[in-house]
């Protein structure tokens, strides 16, 4: 008789992990990489901004996953932050997605394709000027 590993329930059955679930895991991993401004193309980012405004979010925006029985392929579209090396950002995203999908989903990742569709340049910060406040001593007394 084969011993059952601790924490598992013996029996038969099938587990199906949807493409949406894999895309969400991949999207969360990709967003955590420094240098990633947002995921998705222009129209999907606009829709995401509307979702954010009403308190909802789509963690899978800009991510497409193809799931087989034991393997998965992931495509990611992203906007990088200016000042971060683009190849470095893509490689870090790829590594983060491989790690997250294989650890959390349990499927073998065969490829992660990263397309950087734009570079975000932060607007210059407006200088804050401290206004001098003068107090008339006679008014205070």
Compact summary:
The protein has 141 residues and is an alpha+beta fold.
Textual characterization of the structure:
- The protein has 141 residues and is an alpha+beta fold.
- It is 35% helix and 23% strand.
- It has 4 helices and 4 strands.
- Strands 1, 2, 3 and 4 form a 4-stranded mixed sheet that branches.
- It is elongated.
Helices, strands, pairings?
Blueprint: H1 19-31, E1 36-39, H2 42-53, E2 63-67, E3 71-81, H3 86-105, E4 108-120, H4 137-140
Parallel strand pairs: 3-4
Antiparallel strand pairs: 1-3, 2-3
Helix pairs in contact: 1-3
Low-confidence stretches: 44-52
Distance between the termini: 93 Å
Q: Percent of residues in helical segments?
A: 25-40%
What percent strand? 15-25%
From the alpha carbons, calculate the radius of gyration and give it in angstroms. 23 Å
Number of strands: 4
Give descriptors for this structure.
single chain; alpha+beta; 4 helices; 35% helix; elongated
